[in-house]
Amino acid sequence: MTPDDAAVLDDGGQRWQSRRDRLEHERTAAQPTRSSRSGRVSRREASVQGAPSARREASARREPSARREPSARRVVAAQRPVPSERAASTHGMRGAFARLRGGNKRRLGFHAVVFLALSAFFGTAALPAYATSDTASVAGDTRVALAVQTLTGGGTAAIQTVARDGYSVAEASAALDSTENTFVSPTVQALATQLMGAVATGRLVGSTPDHIPEIANLAEGKAVPECGIDYRVLQAISIALDHFRQVGVSDINRRCTGQIEGAGTDSSHYANGGGHAVDFYLLDGQALSGGDAKSVELIDILDPLVPAGSGLGQVGCRSSIGLTNFVPFDDTCNHLHIDFGNATGYALK
Label partner for 330 (CA 20 to 30 A): which of 80, 148, 227, 342? Predict the structure, then answer.
């Protein structure tokens, strides 16, 4: 069999007139297979293309339930109890009261501070005498200014006004003498308190026996029998502190310490209850003789201020000096004696 014969025969033995006819037949036979494949692809593509419409149908089926859900919520909300206007206002008032309570706490704290400050001020002002600090002394020591104190006891003739160092005191003269009284004048107590402040800083010192406790008693308002101090003695010590850095006193009321020296019981340190004189033994660390420069300086300071008739010791321990109010007399030259036993006034100027 020749090649041409083989070309016109297929596997099934079918004969073709030519090789070309066979090829055409094979090509035609192959087309339905491709069509079927393309058809299947087309159906798959059609199913893909139809998916959106399916989703729209599904969403359409779900839409009623979705629409019904807000309705259900509205029903539930409608079933909930609606707060009344009174309840709403109550909640509003609660918030307002909470804010007020917060503000009230701050206001109460402020008011408490103001109340305490005012209480301290008026409580101190209500005391018989009022003391305030100052730094007007030469050594920069704390000073105390006395307030005006007026007592109602006694007639007008018994009232004496004392003015010195920018303060004034109006009080019954007899009340200023603590040497025989059973009480301590508020003015005397205030001045004694000032002197104890100088004791605390070391500016006022005592000796042996020590008479500083007599000042301390008055500062505490204690009228200790036979331990009182003449108000003018306290003033003289205060003036000395105004001009010197340190002041030392060795004698005030000998009754209080049991001393009998010099003039004995006739001394102003002892007579009439005692405490009507003061002995200075030290000024600015220098021992006094009554005629040294520090003694003379203190004499010059006190002479214009003391009442007329005040006594001044150590006349023989110094040269003659001009005096206005002091009356000099003889005494030992180991201190400076200032005496108010025979003075005419109740206080220094």
Answer: 227
Q: Is 336 helix (H, G, I), strand (E, B) or coil?
A: strand
The bridge status of strand 286-287 relative to strand 159-164 is unpaired
Tell me which residue of 244, 228, 226 sits closest to 236, measured CA to CA: 244
pLDDT at 26: 77
**CA proximity to 295, closest of 213, 240, 238:** 240
Give 295's contacts (C-beta < 8 A, 6+ positions apart).
280, 283, 288, 289, 314, 318, 336
Half-sphere exposure of 216 (CA within 13 A, CB side): 10
| Mean pLDDT confidence for 109-138 | 56
Q: What is the pLDDT of residue 263?
A: 77
Residue 174: is it exposed, middle or buried by C-beta count within 10 angstroms (0-12/13-18/19+)? middle
The string of DSSP codes covering 174-185 is GGG-TTT-SS--
Nearest alpha carbon to residue 195 among 209, 177, 171, 216: 216
The model scores a pTM over 0.70: no
- Interatomic CA distance for residues 238 and 247, integer angstroms: 9
- List helix spans (H) across the chain: 3-7, 19-49, 51-79, 85-125, 186-200, 212-219, 231-243, 254-257, 293-302
In the numeric block, which tokens belong to residue 306?
């003391």
pLDDT of 218 above 70: yes
Residue closest to 299 by CA, chosen among 331, 333, 326, 332: 326
pLDDT band for position 289 (cuts 50, 70, 90): very high
Q: Which residues, in sequence order, are bridge partners of residue 328?
A: 312
Model pLDDT for residues 143-201, shown as the tens digit of each residue? 333 332 323 333 333 334 444 444 444 567 778 888 888 999 999 999 999 999 999 99
